[in-house]
Each structure stands twice: as C-alpha cells, then as structure tokens.
Amino acid sequence: MAISYLFGSIPFAYILTSILGYGDIRKIGSGNVGATNVLRTGKKSLAIIVLALDVLKGFLPITIFLSYYPLNQSSSYLFYIGSISIIGHIFPVWLGFKGGKGVATYIGFVFGIDYLLGIIFILSWLTISIVKRYSSLASISSLMVLPLCAIFFSYNKNIIYILIFLSLLIIFKHTSNIKRLLNGSENKIKF
User: Fold this and answer.
1) How many domains does the chain have?
2) Is residue 9 part of a domain?
3) Closest C-alpha among 108, 120, 96, 93 to residue 35
4) Which of 108, 125, 169, 190 would be a feasible disulfide site paired with 59, CB 3.0-4.6 Å?
5) Is residue 189 within 8 Å of 136, Cβ to Cβ?
6) Which range of residues forms the domain containing residue 105?
7) Are 125 and 146 in contact (CB under 8 A)?
C-alpha cells in the first residue's frame, strides 16, 4: 500500500512545469495539479507527457501486483492495494495532500484491471466530450457509467466496490466543476 501510494503521489504536473520554467502549476489556471491544468500553460506536448505519466501511476502498480500474485477471490484485495495510487495522486504528501482530481490515474488503474473497462471509459469520455465539449462533464459521466458496466458484465464484486468508491471520490473532487456546469461558466474544450 505504501509503494502504491508513494508512486501515485509523485506530482508530475508540478515537477515538470517547475523544471521547464513554467512556474508553480498550483498558481496557474484552476490551480489543479493535473494534465488539464498543464494544458493551460499553452504547451500541449507537456500536457500529453503529464497525462501519460499520470495514467502510468494507476496502471503500473496494479499490473505489477497482478503479475506477482495470481488473481482469485481471496487475493482480490490487490485491487484495493492498487487503487491506493489514485488516493496518492489526489492527496499527495509532497504537496500538503492537495493534488489532482485523479481521472488520468483512474484510467490507468482501470486499464490495469481490464482493457475492456478502460476502452469503455475512453469511448464514453470521447463521446460526451465531442458532443457536449466539456472535459469535466465527460469525466463525471464516464465515472458513473463504468461501475454500471462492471455490474452489467458481472465483474468481481471487489472490482465493482472499488470502482464505485473511486468514482464517487473523483466526482466529489469535481464539485467546483459541477457548480460551473450548473451556472454555465465551465470552460469548453477547444479541439
């Protein structure tokens, strides 16, 4: 759990923007330590790198754990241990427990569990973001869709529980976005 948390808590958005001379990402745009806010620096390539690294924070722990321990009903606690990387991203010890919203790390974790779930999330996100042009709405909607799909496809109950918990946590982290969506002030995606 400690390894998963510490790996997830590496604030790549903060580190890379600081090293490359863009300043403290927490003082740019929304102040969020994530790829979407890095995009506000004007550097798409840097945002893509941060996105990829944040996805890996969710993907690598669960993939490594599952490669060492055969998955069965009694060892499905590995999903809980692997998911701690998302908690690390959202509440990093290095930044006073104020991190990103966790969507990219969640995507990596989901791909680590099962590529089908990851593809469902990505397709849901892309569809909603193209139609409505709000990244936050696409994330929130996809976070609600994924546990329902896991239930529909009869996934392990521990996977379903952890997806529900993580989805609720990440949606809660989007409270300010939800308020802006409701009052019409949320920024749209520019393709």
Assistant:
1) 1
2) yes
3) 108
4) 108
5) no
6) 2-183
7) no
